[in-house]
Amino acid sequence: MLMTSLLKFFTSMKFFLLLLLLITTPALANQDDDFMAARDAFRTGDTAKLSVLGQRFKQSPLEVYIAFYQLRMQLETADISAIRTYLARPDDTPLIDKMRSEWLKTLGKKQQWDLFDSEYPRVIVEDTELTCYALQSRLRTQVQPVLRETRELWLSNKEQPVNCGVLVEAAITAGVISQQDIWQRQRLALENSNVSLAKSLAARLTGNHAISVSALDHAMDDPGRYLEKPSLDSTGQRAVALFALQRLAKQSPDLAYARWGGIASQFPESEQHYFLSWLAYEAARKQDPRALQWFKDAGNSPLNEQQAAWRVRTALRIQDWPEVLSGLNTMSPAQRNESAWRYWQGRALQATGHRPEAAKIFAPLSAGYDFYGQMAGDELSDTPVLSNAQTSYQPNKADIAAIERLPGVQRTLALYRMNMRIDALREWNWVTRNFNDRELIAAAEIAKRNEMYDRAINTAEKTVKLHDFSLRYLAPYRSAMREHIQENNLEEAWVYGLMRQESRFVTSAKSGVGASGLMQVMPTTARWIAKKLGLKGYRESLLHQLDTNLTLGTYYMKNMLSSLDDSPVLASAAYNAGPGRAKRWRADTPLEGAIYAETIPFDETRDYVKKVMSNTVYYARQFGAPSRSLKTRVGVIAGKVAESPSSITFINGEIQGAGRTATP
Fold first, then answer.
1. pLDDT at position 565
2. Which of 137, 150, 415, 461 lies at a CB distance of 3.0 to 4.6 Å from 420, suitable for a disulfide?
3. How far from the centroid of its chain's Cα atoms is residue 190's Cα?
4. CA–CA separation, 522 and 298 (whole Å)
């Protein structure tokens, strides 16, 4: 009898567990549908529908979102106790801080300063609008300190919200923001081609510094024509001419220099040096060999960070190592301490016969895991150096389970499942913000298991002493990729190094310019490849399909590699910015690959190439490939050769990169 009862019990339990497995997925789907409906109700202001749907989330980690939606809809009229109750919730979520920020801005608009002052110290993530409300509150009792802080904020060249205007007006009226300060901000606005700001500032400039708004418009629209007969009698007029010269230099250093020759004598020496520093900068970005001399002609004119960097890059381009050292000395200590410039300082010292001093720079730098850390390690050894990658750690089941139980992690997984990637990203960053190395690795493992590959990589990269390089350099889809790699005879490590940089293995990734999928292929590039491969029935929607995306991307990589001397450095540059540019960026004579990468004019592509090549070394090690140092891999880039236009790949009149396009 007892045995019969037990048998019935276990049979019923098996049935119950099977039933639970069957209903779990539909239940999740129903909850997802309910949550998306609740979010839509919030967006449309349907309080009744939101209230009904909210009842279904009482025991869910997502309930904090429903409560946020409900309170946010009535924030202007809500009872203070209701707001304080929400802000006092124990939930570890960015929504609490976001609600606090929204409430503080509401209080600031209403100038309810006592309430504002009591809550403001609890803000975690602040923005400029909130800062200016806080300064407005303090202005009641701390006039001079607040006006000085306003001046510093205003001169920082940050975008100023409307509510900062009250403070700026007060600082100008009190003379804390002087005519010279306005002039300094005006120059920054013109340097950044922010003509709308320059026009508003022009109304505040008088006397010798006065600037004509119509002159600014003409200089902006047609700088060459404006410079045919510029007015140069005052500081303000010369500023407009310098703005026109700067814009012309961006188009063509030759045209700008020709115009400059006819009017240079009418500028004081300081303004001559100022223009020459900009001419040199624009020429350097076009890899014009005259740039270095123009930097020298600029004398002691202060250089901003971009100008100082390009002075060094110009010297690198011609391998003038003493001038590299000289250029590094024009940088601020903070800029000079960046890994890139520490590495090139070591190389310059090494090239000028100061090897012991160079080794003192390379040794600590080689502890880093980035491009320059690897390159510094290569300078110290003939074998590939991968820093302290052996300091590895793998979490156990209990560690992973503890992180999985966190409501913030559960919210992230739910939001990712519903394709609410921005909200999921905020939740994930928030919940992991104070994790130690062990917790970060456990969280990265959870992200990997849930196919949140971008979060897994980014989280694993944050560790300081303990590491898991298999998480930093994930390699999903290897079975799907293998056939494409073999068909195109590509190195698997390089393909993965590029994919990691392109999409972090997010199949739905889409760039701001329309590149799609794991390999971030542009639609126009995809159509061209599909035609070359004879893919019948190809349509743009297939670009998001895994196999099609891999087919197109690996073919394009092979096409770039074959047409660019089998150089992965050139091919990586071409994949991002187009083959025409990758070819034009070569020097007239053979050039070290690291120098080629360092002197790529596009910030995005320069960073991209270095990261792809760095990634490749780590993947090669993971895949058990023969050891090759990063320095060997970047190699030497052949000098320019005469080419017919037909040798460059054009598609629909454009030079193509998989990640971006541009008119040739």
1. 94
2. 415
3. 24
4. 42
- Contacts of residue 285, defined as CB under 8 A and 6 or more positions apart, other chains included, come to 310, 601
Question: Which pLDDT score, from 0 to 100, does residue 26 have?
Answer: 58
CB 519 within 8 A of CB 499: yes
User: Is residue 422 exposed (0-12), middle (13-18) or buried (19+ Cβ within 10 Å)?
Assistant: exposed
Model confidence at 508, pLDDT cuts 50, 70, 90, reads confident
Rounded distance between C-alpha atoms, residue 579 and residue 577, angstroms: 7
Q: pTM value? A: 0.89
Specify the residue for token string 């001397």.
565
CA atoms within 13 A on the CB side of 105: 17
Dist. CA 183–CA 175, nearest whole Å: 14
Where residue 509 falls among pLDDT bands split at 50, 70, 90? confident
- Closest to 543 measured CA to CA, from 565, 525, 510, 516: 516
Which pLDDT belongs to residue 5? Answer: 45
3-class secondary structure, 625:
coil
Tell me, letter by letter, the H, E, C secondary structure of 89-142: CCCCCHHHHHHHHHHHHHHHHHCCHHHHHHHHHHCCCCCHHHHHHHHHHHCCCC
What's the rounded Cα separation, in Å, for the pair 500 and 471? 12
CA gap 148, 151 in Å, rounded: 5
446, 404 Cβ separation under 8 angstroms: yes
- Report CA Rg, the chain: 30
DSSP letters spanning 42-72? HHHT-HHHHHHHHGGGTTSTTHHHHHHHHHH
Residues 6+ apart with CB under 8 A from 70: 42, 47, 50, 51, 54
What is the crossing angle of helices 355-365 and 371-380, to 10°?
Answer: 130
Dihedral of CA atoms 469, 470, 474, 480 in degrees, nearest 10, equals 150
Q: What is the 3-state secondary structure (H, E, C) of 265-322?
A: HHCCHHHHHHHHHHHHHHHHHCCCCCHHHHHHHCCCCCCCHHHHHHHHHHHHHCCCHH
Cα–Cα dist 11/16, whole Å: 9
pLDDT in tens, 239-298: 999 999 999 999 999 999 999 999 999 999 999 999 999 999 999 999 998 999 999 999
Token pair belonging to 268: 């004081």
Task: Give the whole-angstrom CA distance, residue 307 versus residue 281.
Answer: 5
For residues 269 and 286, give the distance between their C-alpha atoms in angstroms, rounded to a whole number: 26
